[in-house]
Amino acid sequence: YGMRAVNSILVAAGNLREELSxxxxxxxxxIVLRAINDVNLAKFTVQDLPLFEGITNDLFPGxxxxxxxxxxxxxxxxxxxxxxxxxAPNRVFKLEPRPAxxxxxxxxxxxxxxxxxxxxxxxxFSGKTASIHALAEAMTLLSERGSSFMKKxxxxxxxxxxxxxxxxxxxxxxxxxxxxxxxxxVIYRDAxxxxxxxxxxxxxxxxxxxxxxENMNTVLDDNRKLCLMSGEIIKMTESMTxxxxxxxxxxxxxxxxxxxxxxxxxxxxxxxxxLRKTWIDGLSDRFAAFSSTGSNGPKV
Length: 300
What we know:
The mean pLDDT is about 85. The chain has 13 helices and 11 strands. Strand 8 (about 225) and strand 9 (about 235) form a beta hairpin. The strands form 4 sheets. Strands 4-7-10-3-11 form a 5-stranded parallel beta sheet, with helices on both faces. A two-stranded antiparallel sheet has the order 1-2. The chain has a two-stranded antiparallel ribbon with strand order 5-6. Helix 4 (about 75-85) crosses helix 6. It has helices spanning about 5-20, 30-40, 50-60, 75-85, 100-115, 130-145, 165-170, 185-195, 210-215, 215-220, 255, 265-270, 275-290, and strands spanning about 85-90, 90-95, 115-120, 155-160, 170, 180, 200-205, 225, 235, 240-245, 260-265.
């Protein structure tokens, strides 16, 4: 355990203490164990979970945690999955809310509550994009229904490897020496100046590379400041979250990884059955749209 990991557990325990202080089922020992689980379970593989449970059982013998109450969040996630989750403009996919998928979405929610910088790591078809957007839509849905705990969530997605470092952060013109803002600088500044209480997630969807990720260290630590080459320093607000979606962290340094909360997803938890089921369910919508045009079908 590094100091940042311990600090995350203390923050989670403090939030739980404030939330569950009047519940007699939750004493301090159970709150600490719940905080340790919430912060750490998300980053473990399937093989590591039994080992971690054995360690916690040795440290907290005979302690059984009461069932966690997430209110209407789980039902809202299921509703969003059944009606379709928008993962990109004009790209809506119906999802199968399996228990393993719901557990990862809840782990992502717990991580968002205690970290302002986190990374969703996993191979293709492990549910990274689906879990992020399903959680955002569920939180927005509950906010629209009057929930005081959930806030409307906006996601600003960018691919950091599709542009150069200068186009991402900003650069000086070689001829005029004028400063030109990059994509991240513009989005980050607009989100920081937004006075609303809506949650703003800045999502970096692409490979993590040491070329650009190391410049994030001042944002991901407790300073929460983006320092640009122009000398401008932009402070992150409490409603902002830096989120990374990648397949691995091979190119990230330990200094960066230690600043991030990790949510690890595996395709084996999802399986291929859900892909088949959602594909079959989507066929009816496609055929309905096809038949409404009055066409007899393609000619071969």
